Amino acid sequence: MSPLETVKDYFAALNAEDWELMASVLHPELDLIPSGSRPRIGSDKAIAMFQKIFERFPVHQDNPTRFLEAGNTVVVEIAFAGSTADGTKVAFEAVDIFDVEDGRICRLSQWFDTAALASMLES
């Protein structure tokens, strides 16, 4: 599987909350660097973080709008839209940078304006 195909499977798993598929595309020793939060090492910790986020945002869609591939690295521009459990709507742009080895994501850094998201949640 190409790095781009692996990343597309990641987004399919994320949007469907398909944790079995997610586990298959994440390297067991994944290095996850989320925006505004501490790093997570290991696919199990990453999946637990995603599950916790989606408890707060039960309606969510990460829509990849642009893919840039260079060797084993894939950069993705994303339009996120969702709502919190109490119905507060949120939308923001993000960039994720993936490093893929042997068909599995071994490093993922996520970038978005955390202050803007916090402001949306305060309204």
Give a written overview of the molecule.
The N and C termini lie far apart (43 Å). The chain has a six-stranded mixed sheet with strand order 2-1-6-5-4-3, sandwiched between helices. Helix 1 runs antiparallel to helix 2. The relative contact order is 0.20. It is globular. The protein has four helices and six strands, in the order ααββαββββα. It is of the alpha+beta class and 123 residues long. The mean pLDDT is 95. Helix content is 36%, strand content 45%.
List descriptors:
alpha+beta; globular
Topology readout:
Blueprint: H1 3-16, H2 19-25, E1 26-33, E2 40-41, H3 43-56, E3 59-70, E4 73-83, E5 89-101, E6 104-112, H4 114-122
Parallel strand pairs: 1-6
Antiparallel strand pairs: 1-2, 3-4, 4-5, 5-6
Helix pairs in contact: 1-2
The string of secondary-structure elements, in order, is HHEEHEEEEH
How many distinct helices?
4
List the strand order in the largest sheet.
Answer: 2-1-6-5-4-3
Largest sheet: 6 strands, mixed
Shape: globular
Cα(first) to Cα(last) distance is: 43 Å
Number of strands: 6
- Supply Rg: 14 Å
SS content category: alpha+beta
- Arithmetic mean of pLDDT: 95
The low-confidence runs, each spanning 5 or more residues with pLDDT under 50, are none
> Helical percent range?
25-40%
